[in-house]
Amino acid sequence: MKKRLALLMAGALLAMAALTGCTRQSPVEATTAAATEAEAAEGEAAEGEAAPVEDAKIGFLAPTLQTEFFINIDSGLKAECDARGWDYVAVSFDNDSATAVTSIENMVTSGCNVIVAMISDSSCDDALAAAQAQGVKIIECGVQTEVYDVCLNTDQYATGVAIGTMAGEWINEQLGGEGKVVVYTTYQNTDMQNRGEGIQQGIKDTAPDAEILEVVDIGKDVVGMGTTTTETMLQKYPDLNCIAAYGDAAAVESNEAVKAAGKSGEEFGIFSCDGTEQALKAIADGDPQHGTVRFDDLGPLMAEYAERLLQGETFPKDEVISTPSTNVTAENVAEFYTAE
User: Fold this and answer.
1) CA-closest candidate to residue 189, choices 97, 85, 298, 72
2) Measured CA distances, 211 to 104, 175, 192, 217, 229 (Å)
């Protein structure tokens, strides 16, 4: 293709020269010069395009690989790495900071070029900085600390407000504004605290007559916490009719606990965030789970920024890459979930 373009350009130059009588080059000289100019121009056009990264190893550090949200990210990121021919390793640090630090060190030793860290707080900053010093690129996701090359995050307070607003709208429509609400939050880091604050504000702004009975620190994404906490709350507050949770993991378990207590989707509402398949199914089925905030698939986004970092692109330290989200309720759940 390059040669054909070069010959066409050479022919055009020769024709122009013959018409103007301004050339003193022989046909061979003119053709060679035109071809050289054409190839040079083509090279300049491609100069700004970074070549694909063909050899890389990506490490994914997750707080758990037992909940659907993190399992989906793991499988999505792995698929993106496989498509690029990259090596990939995923490790759960089981919500333990010491394990997270050791996992980061092991990833560096094993030759990871990029570490995607979904950590909880700044306890891993020294380990991440040491990895950076050895040339490893760091992508943080879901939290912002002091050490990263790219931070993929969202406005956590705004996400909380979205959860609270969905809850408040349901309370107004279904319960005449007289809701009795428990909020499930976590104090594991500032981002999640902000989400919890946003949930409360969203409820207060949208359904001012609703009563927030209690704000519960449900802790990290530990399997079973949603079940046990909800069973306790139902016993403690017999008139409880709404739960607003910071994540789907707890909400999905709460949904089952509420159904087991004999409460229907018409009389009880659960709202959360993550857009997992289980949450979407519950919404579609008319269960007490009535809403979730769904983030766009994170695996492809992580892979995209890993490749851009490996191609040499840099990002301002204060720039946070926002992860888009959508509120999903019964009105639009069919766009995101299809029953089998």
Assistant:
1) 97
2) 44, 12, 22, 18, 19
